[in-house]
Amino acid sequence: MLKTAQTTLTAGVIELGVGHPSLEMLPLNEMREAAAHRFAQADPSFLQYGAEWGDGHLRRELAAFLARGYGLPVHESDLFISGGVSQALGLICEMFTRPGDTVIVEDPTYFLALDIFRDHDLNVVPAPLDDQGLRLDVLAELVARHRPRLVYTIPTHQNPTGTTLSAGRREDLVRLAQAHDFLVVADEVYHLLTYGAPPPPAFSAHVGTGQVLSLGSFSKILAPGTRLGWIHGHPERLDTLARNGVVASGGGFSPLGGGVIRSLLELGTLESYLAGLRRTFGERAGVLCRALDELRPLGVDFTRPGGGYFVWLTLPPGVQSAELLPVAVEEGVRFQPGNRFSPAGTQGAHARLCFAYYEPDELREGAARLGRALRRVLP
């Protein structure tokens, strides 16, 4: 059998470590209608090498979409179409850092971003979180000591913890960047997937300072296979990105895919689809959290997320997620162990669970299986 998707699931195992929606949730009909709309136009320019910053019509539609979603002004002149957040991070590293430079990251953080930074030979320095997000008091000390080129943050419904950076700390982070001349790289892919209390304004509000690049992705709000996203930043910063050799050689990223997304925006389809995602993920988060409440007598703890995909579980005292995982797989459930998200190996007492992929009954069963595994390892 030829493989077509990145994730391979194990039969009989509920894979709560998977960080994406199921095939059944993907917008096949919406994409089909948008493609028909795009190809029905008498303009084949989206089949040509694309403009380096991305198609201007797509950027204009995206600016209007983000202005409504973020509740603040967004201009197409401040938007750059990227090949998703992963490619955006690679591009930022290539154009704004050199080997040996320092990037400060949250501990814990998105584990695959760590691979991107290491691939560019950057010195990765961890900074701790609390229930309000990145601790700015510790970060200020780290900035003074390490003089970073980048500070990478996932400020809203953070992966993996689900925490959201408070409004005051966002302001403090921007001021710190201005004082020490580093770039805040804000991975805001979950900001539009809020189904609880509204978060503080996106870091997009601060791109005019020239110290902030706000990243977004259609992978989270539409379909992972689009492999398209955006960078919101000051035009001078975006112009630097456009001079990258890969961009100059091949033009903007996936004009064909961008043309289809442009039609989704013009037709208003993306907003209605996104509203459905919020309802579904909000329901699934509630189901999983209610099931996990049954495990609290065993000593687990967690905070119910207000958006995004994940629940960050604190395990009972003395239990390490790496040791629990093989027992959990024997019981028919899998999760991501905490230290996978930690550059310093400080998160072994935690586990990340994702509720995006499974239906409610499967989430309940997954939590029950996790409970059986915990009872086997507890003293």
Any overview of this molecule?
With 379 residues, the chain is α/β, with parallel strands linked by helices. It has two domains: 14-27 and 271-377, Aspartate Aminotransferase, domain 1, CATH 3.90.1150.10; 28-268, 3-Layer(aba) Sandwich (Aspartate Aminotransferase, domain 2). The protein is built from 13 helices and 13 strands. The strands form three sheets. The chain has an eight-stranded mixed sheet, with helices on both faces. The protein has a three-stranded antiparallel sheet with strand order 10-13-12. Helix 6 (167-180) links the parallel strand 6 (150-153) and strand 7. Helix 2 (56-70) packs across helix 10 and helix 12 (321-331) crosses helix 13 (360-377). The radius of gyration is 21 Å and the shape is globular. The model has no long low-confidence stretch (mean pLDDT 96). It comes from Deinococcus gobiensis (strain DSM 21396 / JCM 16679 / CGMCC 1.7299 / I-0).
